[in-house]
Amino acid sequence: MSTMPAPPPAKIAIIGSGAVGSTIAFSLIMNRLPAEIILSDIDTRRAGGEALDLSDATFVSSSSVRVAKNQQEVGQCDIIVITAGAKQKPGESRANLIDRNYHIMQSVIKGMQPINPNAKIIIVANPVEILCHIAQKLSGLPRNQVFGSGTFLDSARLRLSVAEMLNVHESSVHCYVVGEHGDNQLVAWSAGRVGGAPLLNFDQFKNADLAHIAHEVARKAYEIIDRKGATYYGIGACVASLAESVLYHSRRVFPISCYNPESECYVSVPAVLGNDGVQHAVQLPLDDKEKAAFDEAVKSIKSITEKYN
Ligand SMILES: NC(=O)C1=CN([C@@H]2O[C@H](COP(=O)(O)OP(=O)(O)OC[C@H]3O[C@@H](n4cnc5c(N)ncnc54)[C@H](O)[C@@H]3O)[C@@H](O)[C@H]2O)C=CC1
Ligand SMILES: CC(=O)C(=O)O
């Protein structure tokens, strides 16, 4: 009886092995993805230390972890996660990072040329929507292959709040934060569903202060950064889920930063994610107020991206 050799593990590069990059690597290992995880950082000593530390956890999975030989090797990976960049200081907005992170993104993309034409680039560094635009332009990859974690993390925060209010599991809450992974985010309340029923029909939501809930969700990152300097566990779990959907062609729907032809920019909306990247966005029905807030988010994103065309 002949047996087929196992396919080689997917290569997942993580550029920036600081708090977020190393936590994404840990989440990939814990999710037991069959992957060779390749860490890259301008601080090679730090990357080496993280790789050594993470390698102590790989016994639970079929992943392996090591440091990149060079930037060209990173460019040939199947999935390239970019977390390299400055992070917010307490009270600082994500949008304020653009000048610093634009230059870092430029050097990262330039350094890994020529890029594998089938690579999927997942942008995590902030501001995500703007950096997706920049990374796509500089890499020359098709738009569906360059996307960002977007409002996935904000939506996870929202779903947790809603799940606690209704005493249901988070996976049964279908409600999204959309627009921008930043201060212009909005909750698509009118499209929210739990067990197929409109979220706003539940008794707990009839007189709920929706603006307050949305504000708490949007401020959660600020509170975490104020208390401990950075956020990383939530985004680690989010990015591992995105990588899994690409590797297994799961076609799960995630609220991610993807190019929206209607808006003519990268913006966070629910989209189907498979092994060719973003397959298509899901048209979320928004009420008039939500639509106006979404248009504001698009306007704000475009006002910044047009400086980087
Ligand atoms: N999209 C999201 O939901 C989230 C995004 N973030 C963002 O992720 C980014 C990283 O955050 P942390 O990991 O906490 O910061 P960190 O400071 O711990 O790590 C950043 C790493 O990037 C590296 N780096 C800087 N320039 C580089 C270059 N040219 N090439 C390779 N590596 C380079 C640094 O040496 C450092 O190790 C920030 O922009 C932060 O705002 C953080 C949490 C959630
Ligand atoms: C830092 C950040 O973007 C977040 O935790 O949402």
Give the N-to-C terminal Cα separation.
58 Å
Could you tell me the CATH topology label of the largest domain. L-2-Hydroxyisocaproate Dehydrogenase, Chain A, domain 2
| Class based on secondary structure composition and strand pairing | alpha/beta
Ligands bound, unique:
1,4-dihydronicotinamide adenine dinucleotide, pyruvic acid
What does this structure look like?
By secondary structure, the chain is of the alpha/beta class. It folds into two domains: 10-148, Rossmann fold; 152-308, Alpha-Beta Complex (L-2-Hydroxyisocaproate Dehydrogenase, Chain A, domain 2). 41% of the residues lie in helices and 20% in strands. The chain is built from ten helices and 14 strands. It has a six-stranded parallel beta sheet. Strands 7-10-11 form a three-stranded antiparallel beta sheet. Helix 1 (19-30) packs across helix 9 (233-247), helix 4 (98-111) packs parallel to helix 5 and helix 5 (128-139) packs across helix 10 (288-305). The termini are far apart. Bound molecules: 1,4-dihydronicotinamide adenine dinucleotide and pyruvic acid (PYR). 1,4-dihydronicotinamide adenine dinucleotide binds next to helix 1 and helix 4.
List keywords for this structure.
single chain; 309 residues; alpha/beta; Rossmann fold; L-2-Hydroxyisocaproate Dehydrogenase, Chain A, domain 2; 2 domains; 6-stranded parallel beta sheet; 3-stranded antiparallel beta sheet; 10 helices; globular; binds 1,4-dihydronicotinamide adenine dinucleotide; binds pyruvic acid; L-lactate dehydrogenase
What topology does this entry show?
Layout: E1 10-15, H1 19-30, E2 35-40, H2 44-55, E3 64-67, H3 71-75, E4 79-82, H4 98-111, E5 120-123, H5 128-139, E6 146-148, H6 152-166, E7 173-174, E8 177-178, E9 186-187, E10 193-194, E11 197-198, H7 203-206, H8 210-228, H9 233-247, E12 252-260, E13 265-274, E14 277-281, H10 288-305
Parallel strand pairs: 1-2, 1-4, 2-3, 4-5, 5-6
Antiparallel strand pairs: 7-10, 8-9, 10-11, 12-13, 13-14
Helix pairs in contact: 1-9, 4-5, 5-10, 6-8
Bound molecules: 1,4-dihydronicotinamide adenine dinucleotide and pyruvic acid.
